[in-house]
Amino acid sequence: MIGRLNHVALVVADLDAACSSWQHMLGAQLSEPQALPEHGVTVVFIDLPNTRIELLEPLGDGSPVSRFLEKHVGGGMHHICLEVEDIVEARDDLIAKGARILGNGEPKIGAHGNPVLFMHPGDFHGTLIELEEVKPEA
């Protein structure tokens, strides 16, 4: 069902400082910051040869990653994102197998313009998993 690892997401308290560290110390090429109000975050992507790293900073007072920063003051790994070809089919299959979907269970549009869903971390031994629908390239 799952495809390749799309990205690993890291929550940071200060996006500018995090970008500076990744760029100056590791030579990372960074995307432009992108505000995603529906998800309550601002994101920057770092492209690697085999995947991406997503830096997440809280956007607004009700951001879900603000709660993460309350528990992990310095920031840290938030989730991994796995690709699927059909997110509704993947969701329905996972629900039938007993997995819980966060939110209302309906996909939202993510940073790359693709539908995404988050799986309950309790079903995956403490790891928050995002599924992103990515169609195979022709």
Descriptive terms for the model:
single chain, 138 residues, alpha+beta, 8-stranded mixed sheet, globular
Show the helix and strand layout:
Blueprint: E1 5-11, H1 15-26, E2 34-36, E3 41-47, E4 52-58, H2 64-71, E5 76-84, H3 87-96, E6 108-109, E7 115-119, E8 129-133
Parallel strand pairs: 1-4, 5-8
Antiparallel strand pairs: 1-5, 2-3, 3-4, 6-7, 7-8
Describe, in plain words, how this protein is organized in 3D.
It contains three helices and eight strands. It starts with a strand and ends in a 5-residue tail after the last strand. It has an eight-stranded mixed β-sheet with strand order 2-3-4-1-5-8-7-6. The chain is globular. By secondary structure, the chain is an alpha+beta fold.
Compact overview of the structure:
With 138 residues, this protein is an alpha+beta fold. The protein is 22% helix and 33% strand. A hairpin with a 4-residue loop joins β2 and β3 (41-47).
Question: What distance lies between the first and last C-alpha atoms, to the nearest angstrom?
Answer: 19 Å
Extract low-pLDDT stretches: none
Strand content: 25-35%
Number of DSSP helical runs: 3
Q: What structural class do the secondary elements suggest? A: alpha+beta
Give the topology string: H per helix, E per strand: EHEEEHEHEEE
Profile the largest sheet: 8 strands, mixed
Query: Shape, please?
Result: globular
Rg result? 15 Å
Chain-averaged pLDDT: 94
The percent range for helix content is 10-25%
Record field, number of beta strands: 8
Strand order of the largest sheet: 2-3-4-1-5-8-7-6
